[in-house]
Amino acid sequence: MAIMAVAALFHARFPIFLRRSVPSPSYPSSVTYYRRTVISDGFSTRLRSIIRYSSSDAGGEGGSGNSDAGGVYDSGTVVSEVQSPNYLKFTDEELMKQCRFETFRVSGPGGQHRNKRDSAVRIKHLPTGIVAQAVEDRSQHKNRASALNRLRTLLAIKVRNKVDLAAYSPPPELLQILPPKSTIRTSSGSQIGPNNAKFVPGMQALLDVISASDGSIADSAKVLGLSTGGLSRLILSHDGLRMAVNSMRADKGMKPLK
Amino acid sequence: MIRIFPSLRFTSLLSAAKPLCSVACSSSPVREPPQRASFAEAKSAPASNSLSITPKSPLFLRTPSHATPLSEVWKWHDWAKDLASSVEVSSSNSEYSLDSAILLRELKWLIEDSIVDDQLVIHKREIANDSESVKLRASLEELYDLWRQRIEKRRPFQYVVGCEHWRDLVLCVEEGVLIPRPETELIVDMVEELVTRDDWFKNGVWADLGTGSGAIAIGVAKVLGGRGRVIATDLSPVAIAVAGNNVQRYSLQGMIEVREGSWFEPLKDVEGKLVGLVSNPPYIPSDDIPGLQAEVGRHEPKLALDGGIDGTDSLIQLCHGASRMLKRGGFFAFETNGEKQSKMIVDYMTSDHQNSFSDLKIVSDFAGIGRFVTGFRL
C-alpha cells in the first residue's frame, strides 16, 4: 500500500481578508487589507482538510441498500452521559464547529497529475468521539453532506439521555415518528418514516425510552401508547434503530428482535 | 502513444472567427452516435460541413430509449464486475494503476447514469422478474464498449459517462477538455469566503482564464449570487463549446460570458477593471508529461496540462496580466503544481512586481500541498 495515512494533522488555517476603505486626504479611495486568521475549528471548516484515502482503507461500501447503517458499529462504545446537549438540535453549521475533518494524505503530487475517484470525507465529532465518513458519492460536496447525515444517525444511536419514565412527557420529535394508532399522539399529523431526516431525532428519543425501560419492548410500548407489536414494527423499520435496540437487549441478556 | 482527439484535429481546421453564439445556442440535446464512433477516424466526421462544435451529450442526459431485458443487463453487469475485479495492481506505482475497488464504484455510477431503474439492476436482483425489461440511455452494446474503454484503454471515467460531479455541480466534459479536479473546488470556496465578507467583490467583473469545462466560472458566478459578471476565456474551441453548454445548463448566460482566445487577449475591454481573477492554468513541467497516470497523459488535453520547462510558463503570464487587469484591491487566486511552484510564483511577484501586490499567500489543498497562490492588487 503506497498510501500513507497522515491523519488528523492537517490544521490548515485559512486567512480571511478584510477590505477596508480608509479615509485619507491624499488617496480618497485607498484600500488597505489586514489579515485575520480564523481558527480552523471555526466557521471555515469547509475550507480545510477533507480527507481522502484509498478506497481499500475505507472499507467496503457494502452492496446493501441501507448505506445509512454503514459504519454504525465501527467504534462500538455507547456514549453515556448524565445530561449531554442535544446535538441533533444543532444546525449543520453548529455541528460542524464541533467536528474535526481528518485528512488522509495520498502520496503523489495531486492536482492535474491525478484522476482517481476516491475522494472521501471523514469527520470526527469531538465531544463524543464519534466518527462518520462517506466515500461513495461522486463529489466532495456530497460526501461531506452524507458524512454529516451519518453523524446525526450515529449521535442518535449512541448518545443516551436520561429519561424519568414516571414523569415522562414525549418530545414532539418522538411523537411524529409514532404510528397514528399510538394513544399518546396529540396531533393527527402524518407519521414520519425512516427515510426522512426528521426520523433521526425521534429515533434518539425512542432509544432513550427503551434504554430507560432496560430494553423491554412491552414496557416501552406502554409508555408510548402502542401495542408491543406496533413498537416492534417501528423498531424494525430502520436498520440502525433495530441494531441499537438489539445490542441494548443483548447487554441485558434478552433475545434480539427479528 | 499519444492519442490525438478527432475533435481537436477537426477543430484545428476551423476558422477562429466562429461566432460565440453558434456555440452557446446549441441547446437542443442532440442524440449522438455511440461513443465508439467518436473514436473512429476524424475523416469520417459527419459534421465536417458545419462550423460549430456541438458538445457531446453525457449519458445521464440522453433519452432512455433502449428497452433491454433485465437478464441481458445482469449479464453485462456480471461481466463488467468481473473485468473490474480482475485488474492487477502493478506493484511499481499503485497510485497510477487501476484499482478494483474504485472501478466497482465507478461501475455503480455508470449504471446510475445509463439505466433508468438502476436500483433494479444493482440491489433488487432477487425480487425482480428476469423477463422484465429496463430502459437504458445507451444500447447494451455501447455499455460493453464503454466499460472496455475504461479498463483496457484507461479512458477516464468522466469521459466515459460525459460528466463530472464537482462541488454541487454536474459538469459535462469530453475529450479535449480538462476534467475539473477536486482540489480546484477550493478556489470557489476562497471566492465565496471573500464575497460573503465584502460586497465590493460581488458587484464587479471576475475572469476565469483557461476555463476548460467552465467549472470555476460557474462556481464563482453562483457564489456571486446574481450580481457581478464572470468572463471565462479559453484557447481551445472545444473548451469554449463545452463551457458554453455548461453555462447554459445552469442558466447563467446572463452572468457568464465565454470568450475564445489566449489568456488576457480577449479581455482588452476590461483592462484594469477586474475585481477578481482566477485560473487553473497548465502547470505540469513538460518532462513530467510522459510519466503521467494513463487516464491523464493519454486522454486529457496536453494544452491544459503542459506548463513548459518548469511548468510556470502560463503562471508567469498570469502574474503579468494580474497587475495590469485587476483594479486596486482586486483579488486573484491561481492553482499551481504545489509547494515549490507556489513559492516560485510568490518570489516572482514580490521581486518583479514589487508594489503591485499585497498579502501574497500560499494556500494548501486538502492534502496539505501548497496548491494555490492568492493575493490582492495594491
Automatic annotation (TrEMBL), chain A:
Superkingdom field: Eukaryota
Prokaryotic-type class I peptide chain release factors domain mapped to chain residues: 97-157
MF (Gene Ontology): translation release factor activity
Pfam families given in the database record: RF-1
GO cellular-component term (any): chloroplast
Segments traversing the membrane: none
InterPro entries: Pep_chain_release_fac_I (IPR000352), Pep_chain_release_fac_I_sf (IPR045853), Prokaryotic/Mito_RF (IPR050057)
Assigned protein family: Belongs to the prokaryotic/mitochondrial release factor family.
PANTHER family in the record: CLASS I PEPTIDE CHAIN RELEASE FACTOR (PTHR43804:SF6), LD18447P (PTHR43804)
Protein name in the entry: Prokaryotic-type class I peptide chain release factors domain-containing protein
Species of the source: Microthlaspi erraticum
Lineage: Eukaryota, Viridiplantae, Streptophyta, Embryophyta, Tracheophyta
Automatic annotation (TrEMBL), chain B:
Domain Methyltransferase small: 197-283
InterPro entries listed in its UniProt record: DNA_methylase_N6_adenine_CS, HemK-like, RF_glutamine_MTase_cyano, SAM-dependent_MTases_sf, Small_mtfrase_dom
Residues making up the signal peptide according to the UniProt record: 1-16
Keywords per UniProt: Methyltransferase, S-adenosyl-L-methionine, Signal, Transferase
PROSITE patterns: N6_MTASE
One family name in Pfam for this protein: MTS
Domain of life: Eukaryota
GO MF term list: nucleic acid binding; protein methyltransferase activity; S-adenosylmethionine-dependent methyltransferase activity
Gene Ontology BP term (one): methylation
Alphabetized CDD domains for the sequence: AdoMet_MTases
PANTHER family: PTHR47441, RELEASE FACTOR GLUTAMINE METHYLTRANSFERASE (PTHR47441:SF3)
The protein, known as: Methyltransferase small domain-containing protein
Species assigned in the record: Microthlaspi erraticum
